[in-house]
Amino acid sequence: MVGLLTHSLAFGPTSSWGPDVFIEIGALAAGLPDMSMSALVKEQIEGITPLAVSLIPPEKFAVVFDQSQISMFSYQQAVVVTAAQRSALSPVQQTALAMVLTPWEDRPVDFRGRSLGLALSPSPLCHLLGLLMLLILLPCPAMPW
User: Fold this and answer.
1) Residue 55: C-alpha distances to residues 30, 40, 86, 137 (Å)
2) What pLDDT score was predicted for residue 90?
3) 3-state helix, strand, coil in the chain (%, to 5)
4) Coil/strand/helix, residue 22
5) Which DSSP letter does residue 140 get?
């Protein structure tokens, strides 16, 4: 049945599908071929229903969705990932899923192992103000106190 979806008289090639097609086919999206699923872009992933996400076999789920695609999941899609699907994921994929499930932890993560966080350093104004404070607080040797 899934093969019929990509027929030219139905929805055509998967690469041309928008989120509306994924919403319309619903749970049938879980049966799409691995190559089609691994090539999905953000707009298409947004259209996959939570039910379809939960029906994808664990081994297939781990193969077809890389960490960048998992990070595009909505909270509703991520929350229905089954324990079996989660256990089949690599640590990097699990991190991407955890970040979708905990959006309040807005920390930049680079999946290649380097942090993209900001390097904090004092501004030149901080240095200048620090020096001025030292000059004000330190007694001048020529002045009698």
Assistant:
1) 6, 17, 13, 70
2) 95
3) 60, 0, 40
4) helix
5) P
Chain-centre distance of CA 89, in angstroms?
14
CA atoms within 13 A on the CB side of 12: 5
* 135 compared with 49, residue with greater pLDDT: 49
Answer whether 0.85 is exceeded by the pTM: no
HEC string for 53-100: HHHCCHHHHHHHCCHHHHCCCCHHHHHCCCHHHHHHCCHHHHHHHHHH
Instruction: Decide if 55 contacts 64 (C-beta within 8 A).
Output: no
Instruction: From residue 3, give the alpha-carbon distance in Å to each of 7, 10, 28.
Output: 7, 10, 10
Report the first-to-last Cα separation within the chain, whole angstroms.
94
